[in-house]
Design brief:
This protein has about 450 residues and is α+β, with helices and mostly antiparallel strands. Among the domains are: about 170 residues, FAD/NAD(P)-binding domain, CATH 3.50.50.60; about 60 residues, no CATH class. The protein contains ten helices and 21 strands. The strands form three sheets. Strands 3, 4, 5, 6, 11, 12, 13, 14 and 15 form a nine-stranded mixed β-sheet that branches. Strands 1, 2, 7, 8, 9, 10, 16 and 17 form an eight-stranded mixed β-sheet that branches.
Length: about 450
Amino acid sequence: MKSIWTESARIPGRNPLTGNKRTEVVVIGAGMAGILTAFYLQRHGLHVVVLEANRIGSGQTGFTTAKITSQHNLIYEKLVRTTGEETARLYGKANQLAVEEYGKLIRRYNIQCHYEQTDAYLYSVQESEVLSREAEWAARLGLPASFVRETGLPFSVHGAVRFTGQAQFHPLEFLRDISAGLTIFERTKVLKVQGHEVVTDKGVVKAEKVVFASHYPFVNFPGFYFAKMYQEKSYVLELEPVNSLKGMYLGIDERAYSFRNAGDKLLLGYGSHRTGKAPKENPFTTMKRAGEHLFPEAKEIGKWTAQDCKTLDGIPYIGPFSSLRPDWYVATGFGKWGMSSSMVAAKILSTQIVGRKTPYDEVFSPKRHHFKAAAGTLVSHGMQSVKGLSAGTVPGAVNCPHMGCRLVWNRYDKRWECPCHGSSFEINGKISAGPAQQGIPFID
């Protein structure tokens, strides 16, 4: 599938790696997190090489709804309850500073990326109390939040949390400019990492530090990220023309939608589910009906899916990969908030790699243990993985090359999906999302 971003931006191609190289830092993955990390490392004076299996921004960055916001669903009251007020405060501050940093970069370098400051709303048509509490806690934590009952949506809401001073943009136009001065090798697939050697299909890169910014870490040991993350899939419908809606909106109700404008176009989101567990009803059909009802003048002009890595406690893993690999770093588990989280990751990792600390290191550390926040998700995630692994032992099953889980067919997305760890594959077996590193044999 193609998105509004992949259809409307052309990033100049980079050559593949040719032979072996040495560098100070190698970044695996040329999405938003990888490019920003390399950008800040280079500003610190380090020599950085970025390796990308496909094209710059061709992964999940090209299929985001590109909301730059510290408003991350119903998270702040939960964080206060499960991890403590100080952790919640630092999480919110890191993400709000990330929102502001995008604006500074875009203005400083005069990046033409349809950047627009706007408000972000979290709404419900059924309840208001939980939103009122969320707004109260977010404001207490220092975020630009308030509870409101009026929004720009074409229907009445029971209540909403409003975050002012947020933003939206064209992510690939931004990447095109911010990556211009970086050393990037496209169409260079990383096969394995051995200590300080990154082995690709085009040669070996030796580096003092290695950053995994490839959406989902493909190295299972050490780190064990496969045991503490899962993936979710969601669906996006592009409608045109829609001039009546401005801003960014996310519903908390069971069958709620997300909205954001992109000029005179509207991106309508719906249907989030664990990868490998597609709903009974086609999400695209549901969205089309909603679009026809809410915006009868608009026509469908595009559709795509997005896939997000989720951690057990809802906080991304950013920092040293494992105590057994002190020179490896990771940025993953951004949930649906990849734009602000990518900036948070880039600022933290670039500071850590030059030997300094940030106030946010412990909050995002992959070595943290928030048992209270993660307990329920851990049980559910573990059960789904065990079920998928067991099904993979059945003769004739189509198995994931990552760890052998039985793949399932998503008839809406037209892809094979792994219900354990979220790898997905095109109908011809070509890999479209990791952690698997290779495709599956062609299936008739």
